[in-house]
Amino acid sequence: MDKIMYKGKVLIVDDNEDVLFSLNLLLKPHCEAIRVATAPEKIAHFMKVFEPDVIFLDMNFRRDAVSGSEGFKYLEEIHKLDSDAVVIFMTAYSDTDKAVRAIKAGATDFIAKPWDNDKLLATLRSAMELRYSRLEVLSLKERLATIGHSGDEDALALIGESQEMRRIKADIERFAKSDANILILGENGTGKDVVARLLHNLSQRRDNPFVAIDLGCVPEQLFESELFGYEKGAFTGAVSAKAGRMEAASGGTLFLDEIGNLPLQSQAKLLTAIEKREITRVGGTRAKRIDVRLISATNCDLQRMVAEGGFRQDLQFRINTIEIHIPPLRERGEDILLLAEFFLTKFAKKYNKDIRRISRDAQRLLMKYDWPGNVRELQHAVERAVIMEDSNILRPDNLMLSPAQALSSSPTEELTMNLEELERDAISRAMKRADGNISRAAELLGITRYALYRKLGK
Q1: In which band, very low, low, confident or very high, does the pLDDT at 69 lie, cut at 50, 70 and 90?
Q2: CA–CA distance from 174 to each of 137, 170, 198 (Å)?
Q3: Helix 96-104 and helix 69-81: axis angle, to 10°?
Q4: Bigger pLDDT: 139 or 326?
Q5: Could you give phi then psi for residue 275, rounded to 5 degrees?
Q6: How far apart (Å, rounded) are the C-alpha atoms in residues 102 and 88?
Q7: What is the pLDDT of residue 373?
Q8: Mean pLDDT comparison of 87-91, 140-144, 216-220, 319-323, highest-scoring range
Q9: How far is CA 259 from the centre of its chain?
Q10: Cβ–Cβ under 8 Å, residues 147 and 209
Q11: Residue 46 burial by CB count (10 A; 0-12/13-18/19+): exposed, middle or buried?
Q12: Stated pTM of the model
């Protein structure tokens, strides 16, 4: 909304009915609505039911009173009800000392009676703009608080006791305190966003915003306005200025998800912003300093993309000071059952179901399934099964898993728990699926190409 065109609500409090009539007549074309009161005791009522943006308040209500003490008393009460209230004092007994005292007490401005119409309207416009700005800042703070502190406890928990997950938890603890840029690698659905949020929540920036943007969902033509923001009038529809994600995240963490999907032209603009640590809004001329901790994530093989010219090598160097690799769910052994139990408890409570455990056959099926969608797919499978299950035990038929994605052709065959055999089997399946392509197989396994070379040699 345009600040200049913002028409808010006005409350006028004065014991002189002629003043109320005159001000109401003068201000009506410039306001959304006006309420008047001769008794200051009604201020609290109007603030609750009318919610004024600007309050014109007389300083003296008792006959022959000239000190203004009543005005200061009600000003204090107003600010107790709304600390961001915009109050304009009015008095026929004005002097410099009283005006200075009024401003120090929290009044926005001071009008002497009788007033000059043009000056009073200018004061109203300034007051409306101030109120709009305060509301805008408050809204931004609330929005950033919501972004920075998720109410979903799933986002704060990394469930798993496998060797790989213990390593990742240790890495998170070790790297969170650093301000180094981190690149999180892993297949879709493995929980890269969970790791990013944990890194933020354990960092020294945890009390500042965590701002995430999925670059795979941002059209190239909107990249600059989303990331850097824009000024009023920068393009059709830009009726007011807006901060971009980098500016909003300043002081906190910026999470760039699916960075491998970023077009080359946008990569260059992002690199410039990271290197200079400043951005310029679309349509603006003044550079703004930013201070963000950058966490990026992708399921792409960035090394291969660099070799093929699809990703800038200098940007790759900038974003991956530290790399964290998240393994696919199929390589995490009994973490599958731990996660399934977690989701069972969560969704049984959500849908008011008395489902207490997962049957042995259902556990075997969960362990044998390939989980191409990883943790996200497991969560959806358990939620669907809970909805469909009528007994107190989760059965395999309600999991509705595709037999084509089973790790074994025999659904009742016992699955080995030997880690070396599980790893060897996973590598073999990945190599077959990738038709012998080392880079593709490493991507499927969620590890680097060099790590796969070592495992193949072993």
Answers
A1: confident
A2: 35, 6, 12
A3: 20
A4: 326
A5: -70, -45
A6: 9
A7: 92
A8: 319-323
A9: 17
A10: yes
A11: middle
A12: 0.59
User: Residues 8, 128: contact at Cβ < 8 Å?
Assistant: yes
Q: How far apart are CA 97 and CA 339, in angstroms?
A: 69
223-247 burial, b if ≥16 CB within 10 A, otherwise e?
bbbbbbbbbeebeeebebbbbbbbb
Q: In what order do the strands lie in the sheet with 86-91?
A: 33-37, 9-13, 54-58, 86-91, 109-112
CB contact at 8 A, 230 and 238: yes
Q: Which two tokens stand for residue 60?
A: 């003296």
Only one residue has tokens 């950058």, namely 294
List pLDDT tens digits, range 135-153.
767 656 544 544 544 444 4
Structure tokens at 46: 């109007």
State how far the Cα of 286 lies from the Cα of 385, in Å rounded to an integer.
55
Burial of 126 (0-12, 13-18, 19+ CB in 10 A): middle
